[in-house]
């Protein structure tokens, strides 16, 4: 079968040559490998490269595929730094001894920043959003007032939320429910009550918002940044009958954005990642994140002396008594089982 | 041959095997503490998973049989009758192949959902909505998705089938229906290929499942699997165990196929094959055939187009009827954006390479699959080709990381992970199974004596391929090329996991836009991608019509 | 002298599973000789011709073309390097090429110039009477025309060995006869060695310089056509080369080449080729040419006419005797159905073989 050999070899050669010509991409060895689920990360990386001369390869994906990739690479990690919303995955990595602990030089954190950053230096928290922003169509339903209110007749078949198995920021919300309701069992009872009232689960923020936009639901429990984006969008282009508004229920859980360094990466990667962490924890970087003007930019910085984007001012502040911080190290180990339960019983 | 096998093993077999091995041996790839365990199977035996696997199986069987049956009818109308609708269908088929499950499902949702089109028009059909969000809706959409695959396979085979067999039935007292049955029997290899392909595509389809199965709580295996892969923390051993069970379903499909075809010969394409004469339909038959095709087109193509329009051109549809307006804002915005152009060009280039290489490999593989020598190699290839269709892309992509991120490989300077080359190889491997299967029907019809005659009259193997085999299957090859191109252009799961930093393929960009609440922009990008692919397909077929020698083109052409 | 191959096959063996298609077969074909292999379907003749062509490979034994071993163990000279051509049963014309291109294709190996090549193709098409059909595609030609193209394709490059795989079996009687003559003359004109396989004995006798009768992967007899007909070495050969009928009886007297067999009340004198003993049970295989309605003969039997068929130059009758029926009994005049008649048997053209014990 000389023929198949010739054909196979020939075609592979074509593939390789063409493949090579398309992408002489910077090799792992000479660039920081940043795995990021935050839209402003590319802008920050560009500024970092401009400042330090260290190139950054950004692999930009949502949290789910990003973590799947990291897990699949476990026997030979390729990432240098990981940056996404939610502290539980970082806590899980840390418990698994996968992270390099590091404390950036000269970062002055505000009160909540100090509360969110782990003392160990397992990861950095340059800012936070909240879980959840309750976005509701005020043309169709009244403003919900409490968690129990969502289970009332007024909201029958009206409420939708994200599936924590797919949506990265949603497990912290459930962890927050456990925290304030006092136990895992109480959280389950509550969600089952919502389900009896017609709660529907969608993949992630965008899918839940799509359901809201098309009238499938009229209340969406999503990340605060997504909720705010929704309101801003419809203010810019009003549509009769769809007037999204956001409210926050007691208690709302803080969702930190977390940057972690791979403990098993090469010296070069770790060194570059440390420099990157230093940069991220500066006002210069925070300004870039906000200026980047993506959905993710609607966060509150943890660095002293930085103001958030104007649209986020409705978010309840640390002093409002509305919000809570949960311990990711307490809830990370429960994540698998809770999500499993959610998939089987709620989704 | 050895090289062919090395390629197959490295791009197809190794990633699959490594991924599946994790089910038994998590420690092998650092995915758990055990070197050998059945724990993940215990976890997979959970009623929830078992139910979703069973659901997948049912959906696969129903949709594959329905899609193949419909495709057979359509192929007959289009190829064997003078029905006017046939020309429309030929144009529509690639659009159909391109329509992402997501848009098809979206279109149906927009019509039936609460506050959907029908609802606004004052028609409330809650039971239809319940059907849509359950097995019926999933099976329906998977069937629609499957029709073009089955059609390509069947129509290629039907083109090569002379009409003398049908005529023989008629002159021996058989009715038109009996003749149709005879034709169907002769087309069995293609029909079975169609069923196998649609079955595998259905059980691995993710778009429909993600759109419809979750809200309706009719869980199917792909979605369960996807959830497991994406869940935090992810358990690959569990995913692998589910995949293995999924593969067993495919073995069932393969066994059914080989049992049905055992020991029969369907070699009907030869030098004596004459162009067929189209049947003149009666006025009633003509109307019926046109209505059939158009209704089918509206259902399969009209609905997703509507979904695309509603998502990209209408603000606020579903909420209100009073002031919605159709505009092209999203398109204008997207076409100016570098977020569309660069990824579209990148994906088009990758799809071009993938299609070209995959078609060559598929030609070899399909020839091997139909060879009369029934060796273990053939069975092995058959299994892995189907396994690769049946395994959801996400699983395949993870297998690629396992295989090409091995410390061992990198130690010897084998840095493929994170390169465009690896992404393209994965695309090729993903495309190879369906591309191969789309050619099997034709290869099965190819009479061995035609290539033997070449060898005997002085041509070596390569020349024989180039001068006789390739021309004779040139049209199916072209169709397979287009199929692969279209399939690769919008491929998401493999792109997501394997794309090299800085070279985001189009599907990743679209997913990103959709995930960033830019539904209009994301859908507009999708529409642009589809249009660009249709243009490529049109160019490909146009070039074929212009450049191919007369003898190639008249193969399987019908006299009007 | 002939430019054909000398073909030698030694102990060729080929199994399909447990079935032996070739069972240690040996055969020599002299350069320029027209050899016909005659055998029923499944006898192995197709396997043999395909192994010679190089499209199949024998399991053991060896094949020589002009003393070059082309097929033994791992050696397998590719078909295209064997300098041969083949006419296939299903024609195997390439449907995407015109008649001209089909023929031209086989000439490419000679690497002639464009003009020379065109001339050769035109000549070849002319020789098979298709000079006006060169531009037609196979499906635009009749069955006979298609096989003619296949024939032109086979001869165009002056190969040293021509292989014919039942080339006439798909054609009607009239065409077969004409094409057979063309095959016979064209092959001899180009001087190639030829191997022709068929299950039709009349084709075999008409074409062959030599005939080989093959059964169960073995050659039963290889000889001149006349010898095969007159002196078949065994019952299978006799049976397969045309008989009018078979009678069963016992040997009464036996001499060196003939014997007298008793069939109940009658006796027949017949030939034998294998040793027989008095009292032994035998089957008498009677050639059609052995029978006539010659009333003077002593070697005759009473019979009834059961059927009569007009054959142009006379009539062929089917008759029934006490000991069995005979077909193809020729006479220039017709005898009415149901008429009683005496049929005489030429002792030289019927042969006794011992009855097979079952």
Question: Helicity range of the residues of chain C?
Answer: 10-25%
- Please indicate the percent range of residues of chain B in DSSP E strands (runs of 2 or more): under 5%
- Per DSSP, the total helix count of chain C is 8
Identify the CATH homologous superfamily of the largest domain in chain C. P-loop containing nucleotide triphosphate hydrolases
In words, what does this structure look like?
The complex is a heterotrimer of chains A (347), B (560) and C (358). Helix content of chain A is 41%, strand content 18%. Chain A has 347 residues and is an alpha/beta fold. In chain A, helix 2 (41-52) packs across helix 10 (267-280). The termini of chain A are far apart. Chain B has 560 residues and is an all-alpha fold. Chain B has one domain (2-23, 35-266, 277-553): MetI-like (MetI-like fold, Orthogonal Bundle), CATH 1.10.3720.10. Chain B has helices at 2-24, 39-44, 47-80, 86-98, 101-112, 117-120, 126-132, 135-159, 164-171, 176-186, 188-204, 207-216, 221-230, 236-261, 283-312, 329-336, 338-370, 376-390, 393-404, 407-411, 420-445, 448-456, 461-472, 474-489, 493-498, 506-515, 519-547, 550-553. In chain B, helix 1 packs across helix 19. The radius of gyration of chain B is 24 Å and the shape is globular. Mean pLDDT of chain B is 78; it is low at 317-322. Chain C folds into 2 domains: 7-237, P-loop containing nucleotide triphosphate hydrolases (Rossmann fold); 243-354, no CATH class. Chain C has 8 helices and 21 strands. In chain C, helix 2 crosses helix 3 (114-127). The chains are: A alpha/beta (347), B mainly alpha (560), C alpha+beta (358). Chains A and B meet through helix 1, strand 2, helix 3, helix 4 and strand 7 of A and helix 1, helix 12, helix 13, helix 17 and helix 19 of B.
Main attributes of the structure:
heterotrimer, A: 347 residues, D-Maltodextrin-Binding Protein, domain 2, 2 domains, twelve-stranded mixed β-sheet, 13 helices, 12 strands, globular, B: 560 residues, mainly alpha, MetI-like fold, 75% helix
């Amino acid at each position: 079968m000389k023929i198949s050999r010739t054909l196979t070899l020939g075609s592979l050669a074509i593939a390789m040559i063409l493949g090579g010509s398309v992408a002489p991409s910077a090799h792992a060895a000479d660039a920081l490998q940043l795995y990021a689920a935050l839209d402003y990360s590319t802008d920050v990386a560009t500024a970092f490269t401009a400042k330090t001369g260290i190139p950054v390869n950004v692999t930009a994906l949502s949290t789910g595929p990003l973590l799947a990739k990291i897990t699949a690479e476990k026997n030979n990690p390729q990432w240098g730094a990981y940056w996404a919303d939610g502290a539980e995955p970082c806590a899980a990595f840390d418990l698994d001894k996968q992270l390099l602990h590091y404390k950036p030089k000269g970062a002055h954190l505000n009160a909540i920043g100090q509360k969110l950053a782990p003392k160990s230096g397992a990861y950095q928290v340059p800012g936070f959003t909240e879980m959840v922003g309750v976005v509701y169509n005020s043309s169709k339903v009244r403003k919900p007032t409490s968690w129990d209110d969502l289970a009332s007749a007024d909201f029958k078949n009206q409420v939708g939320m994200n599936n924590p198995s797919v949506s990265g920021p949603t497990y912290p919300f459930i962890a927050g429910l456990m925290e304030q309701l006092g136990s895992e069992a109480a959280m389950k009872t509550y969600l089952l009550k919502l389900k009896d009232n017609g709660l529907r689960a969608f993949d992630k923020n965008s899918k839940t918002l799509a359901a809201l936009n098309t009238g499938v639901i009229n209340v969406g429990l999503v990340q605060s940044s997504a909720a705010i984006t929704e309101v801003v969008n419809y203010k810019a282009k009003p549509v009769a009958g769809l007037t999204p508004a956001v409210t926050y229920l007691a208690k709302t859980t803080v969702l930190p954005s977390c940057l972690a360094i791979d403990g098993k990466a090469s010296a070069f990667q770790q060194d570059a990642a440390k420099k990157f962490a230093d940069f991220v924890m500066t006002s210069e970087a925070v300004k870039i994140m906000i200026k980047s003007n993506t959905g993710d930019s609607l966060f509150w910085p943890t660095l002293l002396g930085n103001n958030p984007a104007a649209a986020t001012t409705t978010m309840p502040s640390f002093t409002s008594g509305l919000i809570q911080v949960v311990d990711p190290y307490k809830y990370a180990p429960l994540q698998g089982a809770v999500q499993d339960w959610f998939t089987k019983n709620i989704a | 041959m050895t090289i062919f096998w090395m390629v197959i093993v490295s791009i197809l077999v190794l990633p699959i095997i490594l991924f599946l091995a994790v089910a038994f041996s998590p420690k092998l790839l650092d995915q758990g503490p055990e070197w050998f365990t059945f724990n993940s199977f215990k976890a997979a035996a959970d009623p929830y998973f078992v139910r979703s696997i069973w659901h997948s199986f049912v959906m696969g069987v129903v949709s594959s049989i329905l899609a193949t049956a419909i495709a057979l009818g359509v192929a007959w109308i289009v190829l064997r009758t003078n029905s006017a609708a046939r020309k429309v269908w030929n144009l529509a088929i690639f659009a159909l192949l391109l329509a992402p499950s997501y848009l098809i499902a979206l279109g149906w949702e927009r019509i039936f959902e609460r506050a959907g089109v029908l609802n606004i028009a004052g028609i409330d059909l809650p039971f239809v909505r319940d059907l849509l969000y359950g097995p019926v809706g999933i099976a329906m959409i998977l069937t629609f998705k499957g029709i073009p695959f089955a059609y390509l396979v069947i129509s290629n085979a039907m083109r090569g089938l002379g009409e003398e067999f049908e005529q023989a039935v008629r002159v021996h007292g058989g009715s038109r229906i009996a003749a149709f049955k005879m034709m169907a029997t002769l087309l069995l290899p293609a029909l079975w290929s169609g069923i196998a392909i649609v079955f595998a595509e259905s059980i691995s389809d993710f778009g429909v499942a993600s759109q419809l199965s979750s809200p309706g709580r009719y869980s199917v295996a792909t979605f369960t699997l996807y959830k497991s892969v994406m869940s935090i923390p992810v358990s690959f051993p569990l995913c692998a165990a589910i995949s293995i069970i999924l593969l067993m379903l495919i073995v069932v499909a393969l066994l059914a196929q080989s049992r049905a075809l055992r020991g029969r010969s369907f070699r009907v394409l030869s030098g004596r094959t004459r162009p067929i004469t189209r049947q003149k339909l009666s006025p009633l038959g003509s109307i019926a055939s046109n209505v059939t095709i158009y209704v089918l087109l509206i259902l399969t193509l009209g609905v997703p187009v509507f979904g695309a329009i509603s998502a990209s051109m209408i603000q606020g549809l579903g909420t209100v009827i009073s002031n919605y307006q159709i505009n092209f804002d999203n398109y204008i915005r997207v076409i100016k954006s570098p977020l569309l152009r660069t990824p579209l060009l990148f994906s088009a280039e990758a799809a071009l390479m993938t299609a070209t290489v995959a078609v060559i490999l598929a030609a070899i593989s399909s020839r091997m699959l139909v060879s009369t020598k029934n060796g273990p190699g053939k069975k092995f290839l058959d299994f892995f080709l189907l396994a690769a269709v049946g395994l959801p892309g996400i699983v395949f992509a993870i297998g690629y990381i396992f295989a090409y991120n091995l410390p061992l490989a990198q130690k010897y300077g084998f840095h493929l992970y994170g390169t465009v080359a690896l992404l393209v190889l994965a695309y090729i491997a993903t495309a190879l199974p369906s591309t191969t299967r789309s050619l099997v029907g034709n290869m099965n019809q190819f009479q061995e004596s035609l290539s033997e005659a070449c060898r005997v009259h002085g041509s070596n193997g390569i020349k024989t391929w180039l001068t006789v085999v390739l021309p004779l299957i040139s049209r199916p090859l072209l169709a397979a090329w287009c199929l692969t191109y279209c399939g690769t252009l919008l491929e998401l799961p493999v792109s997501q996991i394997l794309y090299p930093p800085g070279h985001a393929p189009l599907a990743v960009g679209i997913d990103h836009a959709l995930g960033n609440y830019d539904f209009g922009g994301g859908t507009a990008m999708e529409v642009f991608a589809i249009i660009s692919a249709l243009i490529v397909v049109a160019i490909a077929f146009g070039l074929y019509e212009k450049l191919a020698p007369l003898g190639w083109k008249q193969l399987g052409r019908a006299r009007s | 002298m002939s430019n054909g191959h000398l073909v030698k096959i030694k102990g060729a063996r080929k199994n399909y599973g447990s079935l032996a298609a070739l069972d240690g077969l040996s055969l020599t074909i002299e350069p320029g000789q027209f050899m016909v292999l005659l055998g029923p379907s499944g006898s192995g003749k197709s396997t043999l011709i395909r192994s010679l062509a190089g499209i199949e490979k024998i399991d053991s034994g060896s094949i020589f073309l002009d003393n070059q071993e082309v097929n033994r163990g791992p050696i397998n000279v590719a078909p295209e390097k064997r300098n041969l051509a083949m006419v296939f049963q299903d024609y195997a014309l390439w449907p995407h090429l015109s008649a001209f291109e089909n023929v031209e294709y086989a000439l490419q190996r000679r690497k002639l110039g464009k003009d020379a090549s065109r001339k050769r193709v035109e000549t070849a098409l002319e020789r098979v009477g298709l000079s006006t059909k060169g531009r037609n595609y196979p499906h635009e030609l009749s069955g006979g025309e298609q096989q003619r193209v296949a024939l032109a394709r086979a001869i165009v490059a002056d190969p040293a060995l021509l292989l014919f795989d039942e080339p006439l079996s798909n054609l009607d009687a009239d065409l077969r006869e004409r094409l057979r003559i063309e095959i016979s003359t064209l092959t001899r004109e180009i001087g190639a060695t030829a191997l022709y396989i068929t299950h039709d004995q009349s084709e075999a006798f008409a074409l062959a310089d030599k005939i080989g009768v093959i059964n169960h992967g073995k050659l039963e007899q290889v000889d001149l056509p006349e010898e095969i007909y007159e002196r078949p070495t065994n019952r299978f050969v006799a049976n397969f080369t045309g008989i009018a009928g078979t009678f069963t009886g016992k040997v009464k007297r036996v001499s060196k080449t003939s014997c007298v067999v008793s069939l109940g009340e009658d006796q027949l004198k017949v030939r034998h080729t294998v040793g027989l003993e008095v009292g032994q049970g035998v089957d008498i295989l009677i050639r059609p040419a052995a029978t006539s309605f010659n009333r003077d003969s002593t070697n005759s039997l009473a019979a009834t006419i059961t059927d009569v068929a007009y054959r142009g130059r006379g009539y062929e009758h089917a008759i029934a005797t006490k000991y069995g029926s005979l077909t193809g009994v020729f006479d220039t005049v017709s005898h009415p159905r149901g008429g009683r008649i005496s049929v005489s048997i030429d002792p030289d053209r019927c042969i006794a073989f011992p009855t097979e014990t079952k």
